[in-house]
C-alpha cells in the first residue's frame, strides 16, 4: 500500500500534524492558547519573509508594511459588510499588487540599498496609516472588526469562528497552506533559481536565470502571504492600529527567522513558536526583551548564521561522522 | 514672503544637522561599505550623554558637547569591534542584520535606563534676533555656524592630513593599503570614532531646540541613509548638499503642504529616484 508506506516514511510529520490537530484538547488555558494562535499566524509571516530573505537573499524590511496593508484591507472591507472570505483574498492580492509596484523600482537595487528602500516603504505605510484619519482612523486605529463570516460547508454544516478552537483551526489551515506553497516553490526549478540569485546574482544571470523576474516573483509571493496573515490578524483580534505595520514587528520576525534558521522550512516555524514561548517564561525580563533579541541577533549572525536548524543539522552531521569513524575503527579491528 | 524666509531659515538649520549626520554616515557606509544602521541611534545616545553631563554633572554646554563627542567616539569604536568586524568578509546583508541587533539594544537600553519620556536640555543661548522679518534664536544660528565649521574641519582632516588620507587609501584598495603598511583595522576604528563623534556633536547642538527621546534617532538614521544614497556613496559634497536639500524640502513641504506627512517626502523621494537611477543620483555601481 503506497499510502501506508508514505505514512511510515513520514511518521514524524504525521505525528506533528496529529499533535497540531489535537492541541485544542491539550491546552485548556485561554491565554496560552492565544499565544499558540499568534505563533501560527507569525509562522506564516516568518515563512514568507524567509522566501524573500532566506531563499532569495533580498533583505525586505517592509514585511510589516504589507502585513499592515492586508490587515487594513480586511478591516475596512469587512466593516463595510463584505464577506471575510472575499475580503481576505482581495486584501492579500492588493498587498501583492503593491509589492509588485514597489518591487519594480526597489529590486533593481542591491544589498543594503534594497533593505533601506524597503524600510522606507515600511515607514511610509505606518505614517500613512497614522495620518490618513478619515480612512484609517489615525493613531487610534480601527476597532470592532467582525470575526470571520461563518462558512457553510457541504456535509459538515455551517462553521462559525467565534470560539478560540475554531479560530485556531482556521489559522492552522492557512499555515498548512502557506507551508505547502512554500514547499512546492522552494523545491522547484523556480526555488533553485531563487537560491542561485541569493548565492551569486551575476553568475545566475550569466547562466540564463532571469534574476529580476525571479526577485519580483519571490517578493510578490512573500507579500501576498504577509497580507494574508495581516487580514487574518485583523479579523481575529478585532482591532488594528498603525502599530500593526510597525518596523518593530518586522524586526521580531527577523529575529524569529534568523534564530530558527533562514533558508529552511522548519526554521521559521520553530522560531515563531519557541521565542514567544521562551519570552512568556521570562516575563520578568519583559522590558529587556528587545535588548536580549538584539544581542541574540548579533551573536547568531556572527557565530551561527544558519540558526537553530543549521546548528541542529551540523550536530547531526558530527554525530554521524563520529559513529562512522567508530564503525570504521571496528571494521579495522575485525579485519 | 516672511513665512517663506522663515521656512528657509528653519530648513537650513534642519539641513545643517542632516548634513553633519550624513557626513559621518558616508564615511562609514560610503567609504568602508559598512551599513551602520545604528548610526541614528548612536546620535540619540550622544544627545542623552550630553543631557546628563549638563543636568547631573553641571557641565557647561561646550564642555558637555566635547565630552559627549569623546565618549561617543569610544562607543563607536566598540560597536565596530563587536558588531561589524567579525562580519568583515561576509555578505553585506549579514552586517545589516547585525546592525538591526545593535539598534534594538541601543534604543531599548536607553528606554530601560532613562525612561521613554522626552526630555529637554536647558537652552544655553535663548536670545532672539529679528532679521528681514524672520525670528531666529541664537541657538539655531549657532547650529548653522558650528555645522559649517565642523564640515570644513572634517574636510581638511580627510584631504590634508596623513591619517585622513589613510581612510581614503583603505576605501580605494584594502590590500594595497595593507601592503604599504597601513593598519586597516585601526583605520576602521578611527573612521567609526569620527563618524559617531560628529553624530554626537549634531545631537548635542540641536538638543536644546528639540526634545530628546529614545526614538529620536530611528527616523534621522534612515534619513541619513537616504541622503547618502541619493548624494552618491562615499561622496562628501553629495552628503553635505543632500543634507541641506532634504532640510529645505522638509521645512518648506511641512510648512506649505502637510506637516503630518513631512517624513514621507524623503522616503518617497528615495523610492522614486531609485526607480529612475538604481545607484542613486550621483552613485557608482556597487557590488
Topology:
The complex is a heterodimer of chains A (335) and B (287).
Chain A: H1 2-9, H2 11-26, H3 30-55, H4 63-79, H5 84-106, H6 112-131, H7 133-136, E1 151-153, E2 157-159, H8 164-186, H9 189-199, H10 201-206, H11 211-237, H12 247-260, H13 266-281, H14 289-303, H15 307-334
Antiparallel strand pairs in A: 1-2
Chain B: H1 2-31, H2 39-55, H3 61-84, H4 92-114, E1 128-131, E2 134-137, H5 138-160, H6 162-172, H7 174-179, H8 184-206, H9 216-231, H10 236-256, H11 262-276
Antiparallel strand pairs in B: 1-2
Helix pairs in contact in B: 1-5, 1-8, 1-9, 1-10, 2-3, 2-4, 2-8, 2-9, 3-8, 5-6, 5-8, 6-8, 9-10, 9-11, 10-11
Question: Your description of this structure?
Answer:
Chain A is mainly alpha-helical. Chain A has a domain at 34-246. Chain A has 15 helices and 2 strands. Chain A has helices spanning 2-9, 11-26, 30-55, 63-79, 84-106, 112-131, 133-136, 164-186, 189-199, 201-206, 211-237, 247-260, 266-281, 289-303, 307-334; strands at residues 151-153, 157-159. Chain A has a two-stranded antiparallel sheet. In chain A, a hairpin with a 3-residue loop joins β1 and β2. In chain A, α4 (63-79) packs parallel to α6 (112-131), α5 packs antiparallel against α11 (211-237) and α12 (247-260) packs across α14 (289-303). The radius of gyration of chain A is 22 Å and the shape is globular. By secondary structure, chain B is mainly alpha-helical. Chain B has a domain at 24-220. A two-stranded antiparallel sheet of chain B has the order 1-2. In chain B, a hairpin with a 2-residue loop joins β1 (128-131) and β2. In chain B, α1 packs across α9 (216-231). The N and C termini of chain B lie far apart (47 Å). The mean pLDDT of chain B is 85. Classes of the chains: A mainly alpha (335), B mainly alpha (287). At the A-B interface, α5, α6, α12 and α14 of A face α4, α9 and α11 of B.
Amino acid at each position: 500500500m503506497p499510502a501506508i508506506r508514505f505514512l511510515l516514511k513520514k511518521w514524524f510529520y504525521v505525528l506533528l500534524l496529529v499533535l497540531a490537530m489535537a492541541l485544542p484538547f491539550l491546552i485548556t488555558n485561554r491565554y496560552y492558547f492565544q499565544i499558540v494562535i499568534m505563533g501560527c499566524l507569525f509562522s506564516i509571516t516568518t515563512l514568507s519573509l524567509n522566501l524573500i530573505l532566506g531563499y532569495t537573499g533580498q533583505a525586505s524590511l517592509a514585511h510589516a508594511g504589507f502585513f499592515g496593508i492586508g490587515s487594513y484591507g480586511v478591516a475596512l472591507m469587512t466593516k463595510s459588510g463584505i464577506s471575510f472570505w472575499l475580503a481576505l483574498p482581495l486584501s492579500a492580492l492588493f498587498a501583492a499588487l503593491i509589492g509588485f509596484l514597489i518591487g519594480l523600482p526597489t529590486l533593481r537595487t542591491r544589498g543594503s540599498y534594497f533593505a533601506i528602500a524597503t524600510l522606507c516603504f515600511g515607514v511610509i505605510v505606518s505614517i500613512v496609516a497614522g495620518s490618513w484619519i478619515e480612512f484609517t482612523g489615525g493613531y487610534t486605529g480601527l476597532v470592532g472588526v467582525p470575526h470571520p463570516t461563518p462558512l457553510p460547508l457541504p456535509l459538515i454544516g455551517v462553521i462559525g469562528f467565534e470560539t478560540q478552537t475554531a479560530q485556531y483551526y482556521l489559522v492552522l489551515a492557512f499555515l498548512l497552506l502557506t507551508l505547502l506553497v512554500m514547499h512546492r516553490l522552494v523545491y522547484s526549478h523556480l526555488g533553485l533559481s531563487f537560491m542561485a540569485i541569493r548565492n551569486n546574482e551575476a553568475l545566475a544571470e550569466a547562466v540564463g536565470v532571469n534574476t529580476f523576474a525571479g526577485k519580483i516573483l519571490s517578493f510578490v509571493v512573500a507579500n501576498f502571504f504577509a497580507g494574508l496573515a495581516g487580514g487574518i490578524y485583523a479579523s481575529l483580534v478585532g482591532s488594528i492600529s498603525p502599530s500593526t505595520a510597525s518596523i518593530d514587528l518586522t524586526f521580531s520576525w527577523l529575529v524569529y527567522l534568523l534564530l530558527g534558521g533562514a533558508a529552511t522550512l522548519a526554521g521559521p516555524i520553530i522560531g515563531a513558536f519557541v521565542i514567544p514561548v521562551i519570552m512568556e517564561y521570562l516575563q520578568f525580563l519583559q522590558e529587556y526583551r528587545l535588548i536580549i533579541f538584539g544581542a541574540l541577533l548579533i551573536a547568531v549572525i556572527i557565530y551561527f548564521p544558519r540558526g537553530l536548524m543549521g546548528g541542529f543539522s551540523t550536530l547531526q552531521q558530527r554525530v554521524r561522522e563520529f559513529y562512522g569513524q567508530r564503525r570504521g575503527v571496528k571494521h579495522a579491528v575485525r579485519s | 514672503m516672511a513665512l517663506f524666509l522663515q521656512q528657509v531659515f528653519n530648513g537650513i538649520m534642519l539641513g545643517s544637522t542632516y548634513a553633519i549626520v550624513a557626513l559621518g554616515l558616508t564615511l562609514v557606509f560610503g567609504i568602508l561599505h559598512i551599513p551602520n544602521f545604528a548610526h541614528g541611534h548612536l546620535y540619540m545616545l550622544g544627545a542623552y550623554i550630553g543631557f546628563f553631563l549638563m543636568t547631573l554633572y553641571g557641565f557647561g554646554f561646550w564642555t558637555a558637547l566635547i565630552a559627549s563627542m569623546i565618549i561617543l567616539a569610544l562607543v563607536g569604536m566598540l560597536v565596530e569591534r563587536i558588531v561589524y568586524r567579525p562580519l568583515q568578509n561576509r555578505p553585506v546583508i549579514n552586517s545589516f542584520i547585525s546592525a538591526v541587533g545593535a539598534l534594538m539594544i541601543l534604543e531599548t537600553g536607553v528606554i530601560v535606563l532613562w525612561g521613554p519620556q522626552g526630555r529637554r536640555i536647558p537652552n544655553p543661548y535663548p536670545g532672539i534676533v529679528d532679521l528681514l522679518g524672520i525670528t531666529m534664536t541664537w541657538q539655531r544660528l549657532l547650529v548653522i555656524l558650528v555645522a559649517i565649521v565642523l564640515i570644513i574641519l572634517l574636510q581638511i582632516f580627510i584631504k590634508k592630513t596623513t591619517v585622513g588620507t589613510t581612510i581614503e587609501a583603505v576605501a580605494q584598495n584594502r590590500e594595497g593599503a595593507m601592503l604599504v603598511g597601513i593598519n586597516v583595522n585601526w583605520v576602521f576604528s578611527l573612521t567609526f570614532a569620527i563618524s559617531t563623534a560628529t553624530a554626537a556633536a549634531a545631537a548635542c547642538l540641536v538638543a536644546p531646540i528639540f526634545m530628546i527621546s529614545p526614538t529620536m534617532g530611528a527616523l534621522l538614521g534612515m534619513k541619513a541613509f537616504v541622503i547618502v544614497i541619493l548624494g552618491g556613496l562615499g561622496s562628501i559634497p553629495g552628503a553635505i548638499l543632500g543634507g541641506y536639500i532634504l532640510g529645505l524640502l522638509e521645512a518648506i513641504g511641512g510648512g506649505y503642504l502637510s506637516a503630518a506627512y513631512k517624513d514621507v517626502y524623503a522616503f518617497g523621494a528615495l523610492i522614486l529616484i531609485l526607480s529612475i537611477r538604481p545607484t542613486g543620483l550621483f552613485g557608482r555601481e556597487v557590488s
